[in-house]
């Protein structure tokens, strides 16, 4: 297991200002035959990097929803002061992210609790900067002084047959019937394994167009060569 605290971008439930980071949790467990369960998740509804990446996409989604009369998703973040927002710019510039679960009524306090646990493991326990004392996101004028926590467990110190039972759990979850008959049930790590396979097939790493755009903007800012795209799909 691995944990780290990050810059304060998460608005705790009922708070008018951010005090916790995305504070990710990673847990890796082996099954048999090279199979595994590999969870890597933020304790916010979305990782801040994904918010930046999909800023333009989110704007487009909001506009389409408005034209259709569909409800606009309000689970990702808030503008400055803690008010619900579907404006990616307001969320990124001055606002922040909801805890995992969203608002209080939908269980956001649980994500807030998880984020606080990571803060305890990494900031408080390690004697590192914690909560609002960590430098702001994208601020490079001071040291972040983040803390990390790593936990290693030897399954052999417990009941025998752990890896076989773990594989049985993985197989059981994957074999559940999908509700729509199209998308299979996955376990943590399956999407990443699929992506690794795609990289091997393509002979390179596929990037989202917005990632390339962000790289181009940074290249111009630093006056360096732009990223060269080998092939477009």
From TrEMBL:
Keywords: Oxidoreductase
Pfam families: Ldh_2
Keyword Transcription in record: no
Gene Ontology MF: a single term: oxidoreductase activity
Family that this chain belongs to: Belongs to the LDH2/MDH2 oxidoreductase family.
PANTHER family xref list: MALATE DEHYDROGENASE, OXIDOREDUCTASE-RELATED
Record-given protein name: Malate/L-lactate dehydrogenase
Organism the protein comes from: Ancylostoma ceylanicum
């Amino acid at each position: 297991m691995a944990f780290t605290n990050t810059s304060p971008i998460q608005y705790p439930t009922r708070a008018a200002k951010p005090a916790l980071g995305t504070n990710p949790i990673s847990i890796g467990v082996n099954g048999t035959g090279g199979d595994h369960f590999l969870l890597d998740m933020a304790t916010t509804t979305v990782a801040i990097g994904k918010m930046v990446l999909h800023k333009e996409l989110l704007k487009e989604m909001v506009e389409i929803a408005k034209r259709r009369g569909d409800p606009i998703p309000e689970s990702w973040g808030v503008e400055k002061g803690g008010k619900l927002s579907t404006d990616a710019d307001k969320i990124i510039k001055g606002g922040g992210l909801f805890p995992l679960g969203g608002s209080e009524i939908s269980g956001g306090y649980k994500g807030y609790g998880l984020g606080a646990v990571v803060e305890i493991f990494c900031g408080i326990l390690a004697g590192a900067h914690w909560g609002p004392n960590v430098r702001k996101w994208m601020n490079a004028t001071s040291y972040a002084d983040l803390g990390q926590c790593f936990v290693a467990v030897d399954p052999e110190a417990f009941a025998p047959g752990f890896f076989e039972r773990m594989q049985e759990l993985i197989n059981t979850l994957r074999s559940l019937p999908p509700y729509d008959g199209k998308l299979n049930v996955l376990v943590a790590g399956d999407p990443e394994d699929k992506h690794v396979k795609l990289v091997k097939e393509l002979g390179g790493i596929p990037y989202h167009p917005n990632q390339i755009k962000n790289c181009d903007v940074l290249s111009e800012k630093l006056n360096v060569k732009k990223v060269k795209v080998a092939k477009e799909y």
